[in-house]
Each structure stands twice: as C-alpha cells, then as structure tokens.
Here is the input.
Amino acid sequence: MLRVIGKRLALLVPTLFGLSVLLFLWVRSLPGGPATALLGERATPEAVARVNELYGFDEPLLLQYFTYMGKLLQGDFGTSIITGRPVLEEFATRFPATIELSVVALIFAIGVGIPLGYLAARHYGKLLDHGSVVLSLIGITIPVFFLAFIFKYLFAIQWPILPPDGRQDPRINATHVTDFYVLDGILTGEYDAAWDAFQHLILPGLALGTIPLAIIVRITRASVLEVQNADYVRTARAKGLMEKTIRSRFILRNAMLPVVTTIGLQTGLLISGAVLTETVFAFNGIGSFLARAIFELDYPVLQGFIIFIAILYALINLIVDVSYSVIDPRVRVQ
Amino acid sequence: MSTVLPPAAGGPTSPTTDPTLAEGGGTGLWKDAFRRLRRNPQAIAGAVIIGLFLLVAALAPILAPYGGEELPGRTEITPTNIPGPGELAEYPLGLDRFGGDVLSKLIWGAQASLLIGVISTAIGLVGGMLLGLLAGGLGGWVDSVIMRFVDILLSVPNLLLAVSIAAILGQGPYAVMIAIGVSQLPIFARLLRSSMLSQRGSDYILAAQTLGLSKRTITMSHLLPNSVGPVIVQATLSLATAVIDAAALSFLGLGGGVPQTAEWGRMLTYAQAELASSPYLAFLPGACIAITALGFTLLGESLREALDPKTRQK
Here is the structure.
C-alpha cells in the first residue's frame, strides 16, 4: 500500500511540473507584461523598470523559470499585491475558515445525500423517489451563488434566525488558538463563541453543500438500484438472511464504491463553490480572498492558489483511490 | 424481441426508463434515439425551455422595451428607493440600482448568456474533439503528449481554470467564451479518445481492415461516427455548465463592460447590496440562469438515456 501511495505521489511530479511551466508562461504572457500585472495598469515606466530589475523579468526566460521554480520549491509563492504579505501566509491564515465551511458542507451533503438516495432507490417509482429526483435536478442546475442569495434572504433577512455574513459576531471577544473558530471556542471553553461561529457556518455550509448533495443523491440512488437486483443479493435473500443484514452488508456496502468516488471529486470541487459562496456571505476564507484576487487581478495569489489547489486535488483523489480497497477488497491497488 | 432479452444487468439504471419506449424497428441509432426523445416528457420539457429562451434571445431587439445598457429610469430611483415590480407601469419588473429596466435586461441577458454558452461549448467541443481524435486516432507518443496536457488541465478545477484563462485574456465577453471553452476541452478530448479506444476492437473495424481500407478512412468514416455519441451528450450537458460558469465569471467581475451590462451573472453582482430591500434584483436573473441550465440538463440527460445501449432494448 505504501509503495502504491509513493508511486502515485511520484506520478504527480510531471503534472505539477507541467502546471508550473504553464503558470510561469501565464504570468509572462499577461497583457503589458508581468511588471504591469504586478503594479497595475497605471504604473509609471520607472516603477515598471524597477520591478523588472527586482524580479529579474529582464533576464533570459529559462533563467527566470529556474529562479521561479527554486522559489516555489522553497515554499515562496511571492507576495500578494492586495495585502503586501506573503501569499503562503495569507493562505495559512484563511485556510482553516474554508476547511470549517467545507466540513459543514460535506457533512450536510453526505449525511443527507446517502440516506436520501438510498431511500429513493428503495421506494423506486414512488413519491419519495420522484421527489428526490426532482430535488437533485434542481440542486444541480441552480448556481451556487444564487442559492447563497436565496438562503441569505430567507433565513437572515426575511426570518432573521441566522447571521447574514462574517465568521463570528465581532462583539464576541473570542480567543483564537487554531483559527478554526468552532474548535477554538470548544478548546478555550468559550462555548458561546463556538456556538456563534457555528451559526455563522450554517447558511454558507448549506449553500455550498447543496450541489454535492444533489450529485450524491443521484449517484447513491443509481448505484443502489443497480446493486439491489444483483445475483448475490438474490442469493442472500434465498439463503434467508435477515433483510437488515442484506441491506447493510450486501447492498449498501457494494453500492458505495461510485459514491465514494463522487464524494472525492466533489470535495475537490468545493473550492470553486467556496469562491462564490464565501463572497456572498462575506466569509473571510480562502475563497473570498481568491474572489478578491480575481477582481483586483492579484497574480501572485492566483498563481500560488492554482498550484496549491492542484496539489490538494491530487491528494484528495489519492485518498479516494486508497479508500476503494478498504470498501471493496476486490479492488486491490496495484 | 424485448420479452426474450433479460433486462440489462442490474435492472433500471436511469430514472425515467419507460418500458413502453422499448419497442422499435431496426432503424439507425440516431433516428431511434430521436424517436425515443420525442416520447420522453423530460426531453420535451427541456426542449420547450430551450426553445423559449432561444426565441427570447433571438427576438430581444423586438421584445425588450429598452436597450441592454440603457438607463431609462435614472430619474425614478433614489439611493433609498428603487421602484420594484409592478410599482411603475412602464417598468413591469421594476428598476435596478442604475435605473435600468429589469425586464429589458433579463431579455438582453438571455441573448448574452445563450451566446456565451453556445460559443464556449462549441470551442470546447471542436478543440476537445480535435485533440481526442489525434490522440485516439494516431496513438503512440502523440497520444501520450496530448493526454498529459489534458491531465494538467484537469489538475485544476474547471471554474478556476476558466478564471485563470479569463484573467490572461483580459476582461470581456470574448475572454469569458474562450476561457470556458478551453476549460471544457479536456472532458471532450478524454471522452472521444476513450470512446474511440473502446470501439477499436470491434468487429466492424476488423472487417474494414480486412477490406484493406486505409487507416485514415477507417478512423474518419468508421471509428469517429461510432464514437461521437457520448461526446454529443456531454456537449448538451456542458451547455448547462457553460451558462452557469459564464454567470459565475461575470459575477466575479471578469465579464468586462460597463457596470450596467445586461448579463445575468452581472445583475446578481450588483443585487448584493440591495438584497434586503429589492430581493427581486437577485431572484429574477438567478431564476433565469437556473431555468436555462435546467433546460439543457433535461435535454442532455434524455439524450443520454436515448443513446444508452443499456436502456435501448429493441
């Protein structure tokens, strides 16, 4: 197993290498050149010349690439134009917020999606089934930022039961140890702070989780439908096994394989959704920071972020592949 | 014949497999698929939605009371009061914060969204098919190089890829089209290639080879036509994604143009501040995006079912 993981990580190297070349060329092919991209369009020629010298943009391309790669490998992703702080530091302070949000979204999507998909398949053709099909169709076609607006309007403005934006009520003077606000509140015993942070997570979490939810419902439903008529399920019934055992050990377990793939894929995609959701809820995570970087064309941030996401994406896929062999021993990772 | 054949392995695989659709003669794949589509209410619903939006988009100059960027109600709005739907007879769906007529903007927005959706999907489809055809047809090192390139593009989530491309190209509708098109390219390339590879061992290819047909003829007139099914289905579904992604890119400020540009995603950007007082400014364009995407999704999924050999029992 360890060898497999090592091999997969090694395969990641050429992809990341290719990506780094593309990103390198990307910033250098920007209109007006990289210096203008760094300084903005109103930069004076002197400032452009100074930046060119400072960053070595006047050196030969190949040399520039090696310098850039060398810095990347040391974890130097450059400096954000917006905040003037190192890109990696900006990510590190904001990432916990996005992880918290993603966890809430995933718990919602998996916790509701698998049971709903399973029940829909068990009641195939009945009202519950039709309802879940329609709901999941709506979930797939509704843009996540529109959904965020709807939730915000309904539950924070029309019936103000939840906070409309932010991560925590600024009036609460909470101590932060880990930057995971809910966890911080629990660790320090400030339970009201934890509760408040959690309330701030509900609306964006539900909005972010709806698309994965819709997809998980569909895949679970289709997969259970496929499995529940399999020969081995019929055999198990014929043997007189308890229905409960058949459902949990035979149907659900075998139906989970495509569902796990889907969950993995959707986890990787959460980050795109987070860019939009966090913007609507003014949630200070990595997503809303990226949205700002896009708006203000903060290239070092965009560049660093893409590499960061590519690595994260690859790791998630690796975890999915490894989890296959746990769920289904027939799939021996080779 | 349908009574002799056992149901496809695993039983029902799709939500609306209708047993009455199983009859059918020995017509061609596409003709057969089209007949199934016509009888599928889901497909009809999708087609009606898309048809309606296409009509609105095409007739925008006639239907829209005002131009897309016109601000006819500039004198009617104050910072604290924006007339909503039904409040003023000239503006049935109300005004936005700039003084634009919401109805007109929605109509022009249909044109913008459909145009971006169709063109970007066409870019992705043509580019992806070209890459897939080269990879699947030539094989060898060409295949390896193309597929590694596709892997790199796939290593970044779609929307972020589109965002980065739009950022290089500068802000504007063309940048959005190209960006979304390129971000969709990998999936078409992969689909066509794998579909071609799976067809390669078929008997009819062997027969064509035995007849001494050239490799080019076999690839272009035998392999390709038999491999495009999944690609066409994906293209229909991609139209939905393209409309949503285009809205997302404009929402993030990559659409370019003046702030009051009539584009659904852009309308949502500027609806944020007035969400409490004028929620319709967010709901109307949002619903338009969702309904258009729904239309393409319904159509695409019906097409998938109609072409799926598992559900296509003759």
In short: The domain at 59-312 of chain B is CATH 1.10.3720.10 (MetI-like fold).
